[in-house]
Amino acid sequence: MKLYHDPITVNCRKVVAGFGLMSVGFEKSHVNYLAGGHKVPEYLEINPNGTLPTLVDGDLRLWESNAILQYAAEKTEAFAYYPCDHKKRADIHRWQFWEAAHWYPSCYVYLVENLVKPMMNAEPDQAAIDKEAPNWHRLANVLENRLTDQAWICGESVTLADIAVAAPMHLYPYQKLPLSAYPNIQRWMSERVEELPCWKETDVASMLGLKAA
Questions:
Q1: Looking at residue 111, which CATH number applies to its domain?
Q2: What are the residues whose beta carbons fall under 8 Å from the beta carbon of 108, sequence distance 6 or more?
Q3: Residue 162 · residue 192 · CB < 8 Å
Q4: Which residues are within 8 A (CB) of 7 and not within 5 positions of it... i.e. 6 or more apart?
Q5: pTM for the complete prediction?
Q6: CATH number, domain with residue 46
Q7: pLDDT computed for residue 213 by the predictor
């Protein structure tokens, strides 16, 4: 399997960390996101959406990060992180869909305004943050409640759902996500997700040369 990716992006980190969690072997092909490598004709032949990442496995060209993780889990029989039980798997799918449809877009506003724009010497748009804040807090409350009295999103062991939901907030100190009112999320990230070897090995802050405030 060959993964076309740039490890600094949210969805690429999700996949690489997920592969690490499941001990999935793969070949890496770096696509420079900031230089627009995902929009060049050669890459668009592989993924016409011009998005990252893309997995190529023989004649299969698979985009969408959560689909990639599901495929790899099935192929490698990593059922500790993607159980075969229908209800447990449906729960994981629910959180992966929630992440892609709701959590990622909301966290992305903070990522762009508080991290990406300053890196590009552009001014953050506080109005954009203020507009998104009510929706973000609504979603954070959903996650906060889910993590009450359980260690991980889908129970007492880590699954693909945790990697998926953690990815959009992977740079939360620099995104300036307003987490102070959400102790369960903070505990889950700091004591669980950030202690996973696969998460430490894919640390984007160090790749970008970011320093803790």
A1: 1.20.1050.10
A2: 10, 168
A3: yes
A4: 13, 16, 30, 202, 204, 207
A5: 0.96
A6: 3.40.30.10
A7: 55
